[in-house]
Amino acid sequence: MLLIGDDWAEDHHDVEIQDESGRRLAAARLPEGVEGIAKLHELLARHGGENLDAARVVVGIETDRGSCVQALIASGYQVYAINPRQVARFKERYATSGAKSDKGDAHALADMVRIDRDQLRPIAGDSGQAQAVKVVARAHQTLIWERTRTFQRLRSTLREYFPAALTAYAELALTSTDALELLIKAPTPATAAKLTRPQIISVLARARRRNRDAKAAAIQAALREPQLGLPEPVTAAYAAAAAAHARLLITLNEQITEMEGQVKAHFLAHPDAEIYLSMPGIAEITGARVLAEFGDDATRYASAKARKNYAGTSPVTRASGKSHTVQARYVRNNRLADALQTQAFSALRASPGARAYYDKQRAREAGYNPALRQVGNRLVGILHGCLKTRTLYDEATAWSHHAHDQPIAA
To answer: The Transposase IS116/IS110/IS902 C-terminal domain covers which part of the protein (predicted)?
Structure first.
């Protein structure tokens, strides 16, 4: 067996090859891409022979994505994605100084897959369809997060020089395209006060707003309220910054809508989509996010508990001496945790069983978030059973052992 530690960078890989006894066979810096993979194969053939069994090659690397990882998996190697924090803790076995080098990281990765392989998680063999869902679902969510950050910057800028705009466009929502168009058209208090009602109505009409006359009157009145002013050059500078943020938000709105269509198309093409959509609280976008983070490798989660642990919905027990506490799991996949919380919240209305289970947790004096997390944890277990048996969600079956609680909750 050959053990490989691969410390990757943007344009190269530092690798170390060990045998089963831990003896270093080779160390090299390989280029990224086809050339680097070819040279790695040459190194392995040199030390393992031309008839080397690919299944006896084990690779430790600090990422689970990218063409290089896919090439290693396609070659038949066992590939383990190791969290950089795990590598840093492992290196403390050698020294506590905190020293870091690419060669040192490659050595630690090789040692980890040699010594602690049973404690590590191999990269899941997700299908191409699941990987496609993951790409578009993450891109869509990242664009939404970027829109939120850009909106906060715009809001902060307006508070500095034009707070009346926050009041005027509050009903429209400042992230809406029509509010942003009005802000671009009149980015200063002086120009905004000169906006006529027909100008405002025309922008609202393009956005298909209802009650346009009343909304236009309210916006015009708010923009004409007296406010404290700044020197003209300062106001002009703030206006330029606000307009730039507004144009960026319009573009983000367009791309989010475009990417949403891609998410739905890829998700609905996946064979597991029907099972996910049968779950309470899950629609196309939430379903795509959950599928993207769980993947579709049937062998990845040995049990419902393993899936819950990965989801971060199951609690962590900390026991030492006389101390014994049960805490929420904070080291987790945040994208998955966010999607599951959204599902759990929506399921409170869609599923009587979920609502009764939530009420039961609250009756035990659990807070809102812990109770919602328990609902999410239960739903993850139900999803695991549905995927394992290839059956759709059934309300009566899912909550049968909690049925005696439902009359009390009602």
So the answer is: 275-358
Q: Are residues 302 and 367 in the same domain?
A: yes
DSSP assignment letter at 8: E
Long-range own/partner contacts, residues 137-141 (CB < 8 A, 24 or more apart): 137/263, 137/267, 137/285, 137/288, 137/289, 137/291, 137/292, 138/292, 138/335, 139/259, 140/256, 140/259, 140/260, 140/262, 140/263, 140/285, 141/289, 141/335, 141/338
Closest CA to 378 of 274, 286, 267, 279: 279
Domain termination residue (choose one: 265, 295, 316): 265
Please give the structure tokens belonging to residue 299: 């062998």
Domain interval for residue 230? 132-265
CA-only gyration radius of the chain, Å: 28
Tokens describing residue 222: 């708010």
Burial 103-131 (b: 16+ CB within 10 A, else e): ebbbbbbbbbbbeeeeeeebbbebeebbe
What are 189-199's pLDDT values in tens digits?
999 999 999 99
Q: Residue 58: which CATH number?
A: 3.30.420.10
Residues 394 and 299 reside in one and the same domain:
yes
Report which DSSP code applies to 400.
G
pTM over the 0.85 mark: no
Residues with Cβ < 8 Å from 331, sequence gap 6 or more?
Answer: 312
One domain, residues 280 and 405: yes
Q: How many domains does the chain have?
A: 3
Q: Looking at the structure, tell me whether residues 97 and 141 fall in a common domain.
A: no
Q: Are the C-beta atoms of residues 112 and 90 closer than 8 Å to each other?
A: yes
Q: Parallel, antiparallel, or unpaired for β 24-31 and 323-327?
A: unpaired
Residue 310's closest CA among 92, 60, 64, 8? Answer: 64
* 139, 256: one domain: yes
